[in-house]
Amino acid sequence: MKKNSDIGYLILRITVAVLMLFHGVAKLSHLNGIKSMLTGVGFPEFMAYGVYITELIAPILILIGFRTRLAALVFFLGMIAAMLLAHSENLFALSKTGGLQIELILLYAFGALVLFFTGAGKYALSTKNSWD
């Protein structure tokens, strides 16, 4: 079964990256809400642009398999920051169906963490660098 692990990494990369890109594209025109949220908790407004790194640039790099480990680490840290800054009141809250309200963020974060430890696999744009 080890021969299929590269296909599994490819499927994980495509799934995590494409689904997150929907969120990133939506934020292209809604950055003011993030700026307000950050300044409300004492962070400088310019940090809101980090959402573009987390939700657009890192997923694109993950998708194409270029510096996947580095992109996955950035993505993971961005998801943790989003969880703590934007969803801190829901960290242990349950949804109406009994799951954690932050489970989607956790799935993204830990999918990225898997890619950080495994790398992109052989179906990637770059496979020779230690950050791939």
Report on the structure:
The chain is an all-alpha fold and 132 residues long. The protein has one domain (2-118). It is 63% helix and 0% strand. The chain has helices at 5-27, 31-40, 50-64, 68-86, 103-118. Helix 1 packs across helix 5. The longest helix is centred in the N-terminal third of the chain and has 23 residues, at 5-27. The chain is globular, with a radius of gyration of 16 Å.
The total of beta strands comes to: 0
Query: Order of helices and strands, N to C?
Result: HHHHH
Rg, please?
Answer: 16 Å
What oligomeric arrangement do these chains adopt? single chain
Spans of at least 5 consecutive residues whose pLDDT stays below 50 are none
Q: What profile does the largest beta sheet have?
A: none
How much helix, percentage-wise, in residues? 55-70%
Distance between the termini: 22 Å
Shape verdict: globular
**Count of structural domains:** 1
Please tell me the overall pLDDT: 93
Percent of sequence in beta strands: under 5%
Q: Classify the secondary structure makeup into a structural class.
A: mainly alpha
What is the count of DSSP helices, taking H or I runs of 4+ residues?
A: 5
